[in-house]
Amino acid sequence: LNERRTGAGKPAQSKRREKLAEAVSDSEVIVRGVGNLLTQRASCCKPEVNDPIIGYITRGKGVSVHRRDCTNILNLDPSEAVRLIEVSWGAEKAPALSVVILIQAYDRYGLMRDISAVMANHDVYITSIHTESNRDEQTADMSFKVDVEDINQLILVMDKLRQLPNVIEVSRAE
Questions:
Q1: Would you state the pLDDT for residue 164?
Q2: Which of 4-8, 23-27, 150-154, 170-174 comes out lowest in average pLDDT?
């Protein structure tokens, strides 16, 4: 065998593979649909664990992980959009809080869609829904059992729900 050896008797190629494997295994990001890709956090937006993120396939440096609200991603040239890829944080943590959100609103077409969109946009997992419409009063009473990460996420989502058209009241069930 003609192997180039370095330092402690390991082949040079083997050391390089070991370093790459270390970078991949230490990664906190999962590239959806693809296994073991080199990833690094973008220095422009510095994403932190649990920030909403997206990946950008670089030329020669693997996948660069950006916050979804990163200026560079939002202003990306349309021809470069094909290089965006879905990524997620590797350490999925269990929801810390399961709560029931009560919503009273004047009934209208698209109300449920708008409420669901607010929750989806803030990564709130809906585990059950109960809704009753009162046709005489044209109101809807809704109950959403949801999983949120913490009280701050709950407060934010409830504030966003209050801003929807026709919403009368948003509260947390006791």
A1: 97
A2: 23-27
Same domain, 71 and 131: no
Of 143, 91, 141, 101, nearest to 122 (Cα)?
A: 101
Q: How far is 118 from 122, CA to CA, in rounded Å? A: 6
Residues 6+ apart with CB under 8 A from 132: 140, 141, 142
Q: Which residues contact 75 (CB under 8 A, 6 or more apart)?
A: none
Domain CATH code at residue 130: 3.30.70.260
Domain C-terminal end among 37, 67, 89: 89
Same domain, 12 and 51: yes
In angstroms, what CA-CA distances link 104 with 10, 23, 142, 156, 158? 68, 50, 6, 18, 12
Q: CA-CA distance, 38 to 84, in Å (whole number)?
A: 15
Give percent of the chain above pLDDT 70: 78
What distance in Å separates the CA atoms of residue 19 and residue 88, rounded to the nearest whole number? 23
**What pTM does this model have?**
0.48
| Cα–Cα distance for residue pair 85/87, rounded to 1 Å | 6
> Is 76 inside any structural domain?
yes
Residues of the domain holding 80: 8-89
Number of domains comprising the chain: 2
